[in-house]
């Protein structure tokens, strides 16, 4: 069984170039504490040897020492704060960067495992929690125990009997804080999982806002968001109520100590075994101990909160893509031929839930393949196995006569251009979007592929032409324009295999025909897979596949299928009759 990576080991590996800041912060804190805990001792000397005796020389001498110590402590405090801020923010930056880099390696199944909302929560809320905890750990969590121990030791130097009082409260506080931590942690874990669901709800709503408004479902969406938000409120409130017990517990113990020390100390001063200055110093150390305990409780709360976040971040950092290059990956794709040999596939890796079943298919390089079938017949799943977006559960897929698992994935995907069913454009100019296909493409090459995809005419109508800015998600262009730009972007890769997944559904039949004509004439050597709902989009293909229930139930060209396939003939007649009636 594979050993689970350590949370602390994984996270500390992201400190990287901020190790120096991380190490210097506690060093400066130690020096700061050293001067802070010595100040009450010097204060006692000032009172006993200067103020009570009326010795002005001692008053000035010890006063000057106090001033110097206070300034030096302030300087070390400022330095520790500066380096702590740099270390924690740098650590957070590295966490986000490493998570984002790892996400880029994920296969589709890895992304499905975490969900988009879950990944966003980890990159934002969880990193912020861990950053705050890290800053507290390297600064406050170092300062508080050292100050607590040093203050207690110095109270022991002043008066051992009074110092022993503090030993009573430490076990009580330790047990109480441990119980709080163990009770609150599962609640915080549940809260962050609910955060993932909330982000998914928000993302789904914003992406589908046009549908929401067109169906007047705003109230339903508000209710759905309200329900999940209320769950977070209830869990967080319960967790915070538990954590809140640490403050009254701590204050009760400390104030009892103060009362006992005050009562005993007063008797000792009257009896002459304790000076006024020493009692004053004793109270200063009591306040230091009180402040240290308060700070420790703050750190504890932050660590409880951050522990769940740290575990979630570690999950994302240590997740390995289930798609990897082999030991000696092939770098060159010989041609665009594709072969499916007894291929079956299941998203759940469960043979009883296969969505592709025993597919056998041979496509020669340069052929055009049309794929037709109803919704849920695994047309998209079939073509996603070609660029190895998923791996076949059984059997193998060959491109250029080589198993896709033997290729370097980047090299394979460079030669397979895919225009997905859901077209995506990114914010930026048209040129910037097109250069996703080829970062070094010239203006002439971009114009050429846009003419092939029938995108150039509408681009020329824009005032800024190819420098027109595309809004996020391509919201300022129509569905058909978006599809044509995505096709042009794919063509710019000059691929050996081109996959169009229902990518001309939003264009008219005339434009669709012009695109197909351009493909035949301009890229005859490129193997083309066209998934379509209209027979007119694929009727001139070399092979047409009819899919049903995850299987290829018929295959042939247009004329052959009209004679041999009842499904194809039924679809063809329904579409052509519909066209006649419209005319």
Give a short synopsis of this structure.
By secondary structure, the chain is an alpha/beta fold. The protein has helices at residues 7-12, 19-51, 56-105, 108-114, 116-138, 140-158, 160-163, 165-207, 209-214, 218-243, 246-271, 276-318, 379-384, 409-414, 430-434, 443-452, 456-461, 479-491, 509-522, 558-564, 566-582; strands at 338-345, 356-363, 368-373, 394-399, 402-403, 416-419, 428-429, 469-470, 497-501, 527-531, 543-548, 551-556.
Q: What is the β-strand count?
A: 12
- Overall shape: it is elongated
Radius of gyration: 35 Å
Question: Which structural category do the helix and sheet elements fall into?
Answer: alpha/beta
- Summed up, the helix count is 21
Biggest sheet, spatial arrangement of strands:
6-9-10-3-11-12
Describe the biggest sheet?
A: 6 strands, mixed
Measured between the Cα atoms of the first and last residue, the distance is 67 Å
The percentage of residues in β strands lies in: 5-15%
* Unreliable runs: 579-583
Q: Assign a percent range to the helix content.
A: 55-70%
Oligomer: single chain
What's the overall average pLDDT, rounded?
A: 81
Kindly describe this structure.
The protein is α/β, with parallel strands linked by helices. Helices cover 63% and strands 10% of the residues. The chain is built from 21 helices and twelve strands. The protein has helices at 7-12, 19-51, 56-105, 108-114, 116-138, 140-158, 160-163, 165-207, 209-214, 218-243, 246-271, 276-318, 379-384, 409-414, 430-434, 443-452, 456-461, 479-491, 509-522, 558-564, 566-582; strands at 338-345, 356-363, 368-373, 394-399, 402-403, 416-419, 428-429, 469-470, 497-501, 527-531, 543-548, 551-556. A six-stranded mixed beta sheet has the order 6-9-10-3-11-12. Strands 2-1-4-5 form a four-stranded antiparallel beta sheet, with no helix packed on it. A two-stranded antiparallel sheet has the order 7-8. A hairpin with a 2-residue loop joins β4 (394-399) and β5 (402-403). α8 runs antiparallel to α10 (218-243) and α8 runs parallel beside α12 (276-318). The longest helix has 50 residues, at 56-105. The chain is elongated. It starts with 6 loop residues before the first helix and ends with a helix. Residues 579-583 have low confidence and may be disordered.
